[in-house]
């Protein structure tokens, strides 16, 4: 059975205020073309269909159009909600849409209710595990802890129990939206550490023939059976070196996996350039980036006048401007805020802040107030730890 694994469409997202709806439409055109050209048997979408819980109308219309086009292909599609999606909104009408071959899995209660498809070698059970927020689903799944690993482990226990009750030789595919240990993040994924430790060990998915992951935006292979497709478009300059692709996966008669990457359309290349402003404006080696979306980091010791306008004359698509000034020889001041704070107490940091804002440090009475406030916070934190 041939599968096309994609994820993290983030419909409605922009790139540094540049709208991407046209690029997202071009990607969906490419997806439909790939399904036809490569005779795909099932499409897998591993979460983050939208970029936010209440997406703009244009993004909803694009998604609706995509569903109609996928249904018209008569190729089943299995799709889960991600941490950016509103599971309830995305899942509206799932029962009706299911009849068209578009299988939306947004309810944790359906984790162990697979979409069963068949090929010449027997059944393949597709289990859709939507993004599972530990605080919200722990009790429902009977998880033994409040971490992402605990709730995903509980969901996979249900999956394995269902699979064990099916005919021998039934192959299995799991879709999940999570941060699996060994994956490499970028700057454009939303942090999911709230609600427990974010990472999930690969062993959580033991027993599945293929695991189609979403959440991380770089295409990567954790092992032959566990893969991230990554996002089809770059959503931060940290993805400048990414090759944006989908996975074309062949699932063999006994569950063996072969996979190849299918490149996605690139609306405009990304470039990160660094140096003195005068050098960036004159360096012929940067000619190749004049049509790219550019992030420029200026290292001039003194911030130059009008840098963005001057850069835009050479790089019309410059979107981000950062400053990292070179330090004079012998200047040993720490380069980062974290380094400046290293070794200082909470009280010292608070007093430094008062001095920075007001121009002079706190007096004796004000120091007493700061000390009392910090002590109260520590006492409350200790009480919470004891109560856990």
UniProtKB/TrEMBL annotation:
PANTHER family to which the protein is assigned, alphabetical: COMPONENT OF ATP-DEPENDENT DSDNA EXONUCLEASE (PTHR30337), NUCLEASE SBCCD SUBUNIT D (PTHR30337:SF0)
Record keywords, A-Z: DNA recombination, DNA replication, Endonuclease, Exonuclease, Hydrolase, Nuclease
Protein name as it appears in the record: Nuclease SbcCD subunit D
Span of domain Calcineurin-like phosphoesterase: 1-217
Transmembrane segments: none
Family: Belongs to the SbcD family.
Cited function: SbcCD cleaves DNA hairpin structures. These structures can inhibit DNA replication and are intermediates in certain DNA recombination reactions. The complex acts as a 3'->5' double strand exonuclease that can open hairpins. It also has a 5' single-strand endonuclease activity.
Organism: Streptomyces luteosporeus
Subunit annotation: Heterodimer of SbcC and SbcD.
Xref: Gene3D superfamilies: 3.60.21.10
Domain (Nuclease SbcCD subunit D C-terminal): residue spans on this chain: 267-356
Domain of life, source organism: Bacteria
Gene encoding the protein: sbcD
A molecular function GO annotation: exonuclease activity
């Amino acid at each position: 059975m041939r599968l096309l694994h994609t994820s993290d469409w983030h419909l409605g997202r922009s790139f540094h205020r540049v709208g991407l709806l046209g690029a997202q439409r071009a990607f969906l055109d490419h997806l439909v073309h790939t399904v036809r050209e490569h005779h795909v048997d099932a499409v897998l979408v591993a979460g983050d269909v939208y970029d936010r819980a209440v997406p703009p109308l244009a993004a909803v219309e694009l998604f609706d159009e995509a569903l109609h086009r996928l249904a018209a292909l008569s190729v089943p599609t299995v799709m889960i909600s991600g941490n950016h999606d509103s599971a309830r909104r995305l899942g509206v009408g799932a029962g009706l849409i299911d009849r068209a071959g578009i299988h939306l899995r947004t309810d944790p209660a359906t984790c162990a209710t697979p979409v069963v498809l068949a090929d010449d070698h027997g059944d393949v059970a597709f289990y859709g595990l939507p993004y599972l927020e530990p605080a919200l689903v722990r009790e429902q799944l009977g998880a033994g802890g409040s971490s992402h690993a605990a709730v995903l482990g509980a969901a996979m226990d249900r999956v394995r129990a269902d699979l064990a009750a099916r005919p021998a030789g039934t192959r299995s595919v799991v879709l999940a939206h999570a941060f699996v240990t060994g994956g490499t993040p970028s700057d454009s994924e939303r942090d999911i550490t709230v609600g427990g430790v974010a990472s999930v060990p690969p062993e959580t998915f033991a027993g599945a023939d293929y695991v189609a992951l979403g959440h991380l935006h770089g295409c990567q292979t954790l092992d032959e059976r566990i893969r991230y497709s990554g996002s089809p478009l770059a959503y931060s300059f940290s993805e400048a070196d990414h090759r944006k692709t989908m996975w074309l996966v062949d699932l063999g008669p006994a569950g063996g996996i072969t996979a190849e990457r299918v490149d996605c359309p690139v609306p405009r290349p990304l470039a990160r350039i660094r140096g003195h402003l005068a050098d960036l404006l004159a360096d012929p080696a940067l000619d190749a980036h004049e049509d790219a979306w550019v992030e420029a980091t200026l290292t001039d010791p003194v911030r130059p006048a009008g840098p963005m306008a001057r850069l835009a004359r050479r790089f019309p698509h410059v979107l981000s401007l950062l400053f990292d000034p070179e330090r004079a020889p012998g200047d040993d001041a720490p380069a980062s805020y974290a380094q400046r704070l290293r070794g200082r107490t909470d009280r010292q940091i608070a007093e430094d802040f008062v001095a920075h804002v007001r121009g002079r440090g706190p007096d004796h009475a004000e120091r007493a107030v700061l000390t009392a406030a910090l002590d109260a916070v520590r006492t409350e934190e200790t009480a919470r730890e004891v109560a856990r």
